[in-house]
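step: validate -> pass
step: tokenize input -> pass
step: predict -> running
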Amino acid sequence: MTGNLLLDNVISLAGIGLVVAVIAALFRGTRAQATREAALVRLAFDEPDFVVAEAVGARNAQVFRSETGETAIVLVVGDGLVVRRFAPGALRIDETGDEIVLRADDLPGGRLAVRQADAQAVRQWARAVNDWRDSDT
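step: predict -> pass
step: emit ->
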């Protein structure tokens, strides 16, 4: 280009930096959040026969239970929401303080921690799901 190796390298690096900055500005997306409303819309689209009886949730996931004991989890994956549906008793649920930990092979990493401000609601929900699971065995 210019015959000066140092100047050529600086120009090349500046060009690469400019291209990376433009791509980052154009394609930078906001990360999805699992709000209750967005999760209900996604759940209705993916599982139209699922009737919600109870729900707990946080920013990373919303967990719904039907009156038949099924559980549906709407969680954030990448820039979108994904629905996982479980038969009664398929989830193992542990409760610790204001957090419930859902364990199943179909979840990312095999577990999902859901935190909610209302610790009592979380405990009641987890016990109801666990009672349903224990009644099947």
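step: describe -> The CA atoms of residues 31 and 79 lie 5 Å apart.
step: cleanup -> pass
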